[in-house]
Amino acid sequence: MTKPAPRENVLAIDIYVPGKSAAAARNGARVFKLSANETPLGPSPRAIAAARQSIEHAAAYPEGSSKLLRAAIGAAHNLDPARIIAGAGSDEILELLALAFIGPGDEAIYSQYGFLEYKIVTLAAGGTPIVAPETNYTANVDALLAAVTAKTKMVFLANPNNPTGTYLPLSEVTRLADALPKNAILVLDAAYAEYVTTTEYEAGVALATQRDNVVMTRTFSKIYGLAGLRLGWGYGPAEIIDALNRIRSPFNVSSVASAAGIAALEDRAHLGAAIAHNAEWLPWLAQNIAALGLEVLPSVGNFLAIRFPDEDGRRAADADKFLTERGLVLRAIAAYGMPEFLRLTVGSREANERVVAALAEFVGRR
Ligand code: PMP
């Protein structure tokens, strides 16, 4: 060999392409980024103030175990802080889980339109990704279970899932947990949990508390509006959290992110406003877009997958270009095997109204 070569699996990874941020808007139209499931409400003012204050002390390393943050999360969610691990986004927790529990020869299962990070972390760990088919763009417990083999070490389930927005009720998640081999971990990725209003849903607190092989991951990136600071967490059995703590980098969460996260958890009014905003505008968007004759997947998150017809000039790619020119930046999700869809994040009132108006114009074009 004449030069360094990464492990074979590494080059099998397709680089994650984030949603577009800058738009080539015509006439300098105002740009609305609706491509990354970020909240239009921004972070809590208390989180901003706490981050500002914290940066004064940025010369000092953070406390390595994110003790204060874990205590705050524990208090907010009624969980044992010793069973919580904080990370640089929930992406880091997913990565730690894969690195600690998946190796060459091992398999990790996720569903057909599941969040792409599962494939990345599985390959990065040297494992083999296994894809289970979905039904109506919804994870199918029987299909996930049918994919289980003696090599299965992990099953990733985003609930609700990104980019489809669909979810599994607690009864189905429990059925999945019940039937999995005891040596395989069920990862319940509940990045959008706070947005879900249906009573049949539960993020995974009970299962991750009671089972030896269930972990729940959560994030401050979505409803708390702190995506730029990179802050997420995982909760699960002490032995699993212990393994993750052994392999994480010693100062994986910045002091500024921790301080902002703690303040964000304390601002219940801001959280309530974000929930109320979504509860108002998600159905508004779904109804108004469906009224234009476009199919919308039933979402419980803060985003919608919109299907475009397979007709010249009317496809998702055409709509993407049309909307982008008007400063409305949605997410193309061809990388998820959904080339006929665009994903729209619920935005401000102005952004939402503009999207519906622009889609009406797009659909009405001859
Ligand atoms: N899980 C799901 C389902 C997501 O959509 C995202 C964000 N795209 C993440 C995890 C990771 O979010 P973060 O690392 O910002 O916490």
Strand element count: 13
- In whole angstroms, the N-to-C terminal distance is 59 Å
Elements, N to C (H/E): HEHHEHEHEHEHEHEEHHHEEHEEEH
Strand order of the largest sheet: 2-8-7-6-5-3-4
Strand content: 5-15%
Architecture per CATH nomenclature, i.e. the level-2 architecture of the largest domain: 3-Layer(aba) Sandwich
Mean pLDDT: 96
What small molecules are bound in this structure?
Answer: 4'-deoxy-4'-aminopyridoxal-5'-phosphate
Provide the gyration radius in Å. Answer: 21 Å
Structural class: alpha/beta
Tally of alpha and pi helices: 13
Could you say which overall geometry the principal axes of the C-alpha atoms support? Answer: globular
Describe this structure in a few short sentences.
The protein has helices spanning 8-11, 45-55, 67-77, 90-101, 117-124, 141-146, 170-179, 205-210, 238-247, 255-266, 268-290, 316-325, 349-364, and strands spanning 32-33, 84-87, 107-111, 128-132, 152-158, 185-189, 214-219, 232-235, 295-296, 303-307, 328-329, 331-332, 341-345. With 366 residues, the protein is an alpha/beta fold.
